[in-house]
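Ticket opened by: R.M.
Priority: normal
Category: complex prediction / small molecule

The reporter submitted a protein together with adenosine-5'-diphosphate and asked that the result be attached to this ticket for the collaborator who will pick it up next week. Submitted input follows.
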Amino acid sequence: MLETKNLKKVYKTKKGVSVNALNGVSIKFPEKGLVFLLGKSGSGKSTLLNLLGGLDKYDEGEIIIKGVSSKDFNQSHFDSYRNTYVGFIFQEYNVLEEFTVGANIALAIELQGRKASDEEINSILTKVDLEGYGDRKPNELSGGQKQRVAIARALVKNPQIIMADEPTGALDSKTGKQVLDTLKKLSEEKLVIVVSHDREFAETYGDRIIELADGNIIEDMEKSVKIVAKQRKINEDNLQFNDTTVVVKKGYHLTEDDRIKINEYIDRVNSNLNIKVANENQGGSTGEFVKTDESKIKYQDREFKLIKSKLPLKNAFKIGASSLKHKKIRLTITILLSFVAFTLFALADTFGNYNHIKTCTKSIVDSKIKYATVSKSIKVGDGTYSYWNEYGNYLSKGDLKKINKETGLNFTGVITPNEELTLGNIDTNVKLTKNDSYCAYANSVSGFTTLDNKKLKEYNYKMIAGKLPEGKNNDIALSEYVFETFKKAGYVNGNKTIKINDYNDLVGKEIAIGKSKYKVVGIFDTQVDLNRYKDLSGDLKGNS
Ligand code: ADP
Ligand code: MG
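Result attached by the on-call engineer:
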């Protein structure tokens, strides 16, 4: 199902130095089981995982997915693969702190364009051993439980492959074990690829360990198959005979009968025998690692089904990381729209042990969100597969009037020209690192609106520097949120990056949005609580 051939990836740094992150890696992955990508920091593990998941582009070689070579892929094949076949789990939990566990899963389901039912939420919670936790807030959970909520979110699309980059990196070893137990269980039916630098975890849990150093595979070992199949039984049996090992249940004392059995076994195997005490841990195993034999791996690939993507690559990371930013992220907006719908029309009180509509509504109210972005999406597709399409479905003046009338709230329209509204070319005005732009900062603006003093007052916005534009063509005022991006990233002018510390540092400067240039004349505060997003503004990839 998944294979790489001579995969190469070169990173070019700004100074023109090339880093060979992957030097021609060929791997044939099994259809299921737990495969570890092991190696020191910088060895290329994350690079390999990102390429395997279609999150990044390779420079040479190919990836064969369900019998189709990536050479014959176009972008929509990749989008389809990533959004349908692969579930991602990162070191940071990808859990929305503001919402209950159940709401987190409900949102993931709605993002798939399906309606979340309590049955589905409960069934997914059971898969990650979190039944009964639906009403908890993430801050009432341990790190290991939070990570399992992230796994639950990844399971929503029922992926055939799960990819996890250092999923236990932020956890102590005990909670890390719970996460691996869950991944181990899932690997009975799915291919689970885990990036780790922890050899002990890899040896305890892995069915196969592929070790990388400097972008090369230096070792590829698999656990002897017979042992793997038997290991789950260790909880029931006091004694187990596996190849050249006798495994004794922890705490069990041998009887005379056992001694006879072992002696008989010794006669039969005709080799040295190891006696081991089994780890209590259900997922653990006592198998021995042997050199991987990829010729045993046989695929039964049915045709690669191209499913139109709901999440273009641009948004794939952002979704996990974004929470409810005050910024245009199409799918987040769909969620918000659902929320508004829930808030207004959710009078139905369904029975069952978990009620997601009530919980979602309560979550919004509890977290005191005073601002929301609304956009128009239209449901397309047939009964079996449908999704919310926002592209090109703009709100008309009439729509706006209707929303304001029906909600009693005061939404204002945003004009979005038909082009990408990136801030500079990132290189010209804003020098955000890749990770930052995936996080809470604005690497593009949502659109333009007209503001005057009356509107400022109405919305309780305040000018915090400069003044409102007076109608000159290219004058513009920015929201504080956009200012924060420049504060984080600096203002780039030619080769120089100028540090922006104060609001006034940005006033008077020329910035590029999309293909046009504007002069910043003022900055206004929109009362967005940026602190809510501060956890998202760090380095997404963690430290290795
Ligand atoms: P690991 O996950 O094993 O720690 P990575 O795959 O992240 O390693 O990195 C492999 C190598 O590629 C390292 O030398 C790293 O510095 C380099 N690298 C990774 N990402 C980038 C990037 N975006 N730009 C330049 N070099 C990078
Ligand atoms: Mg890494």
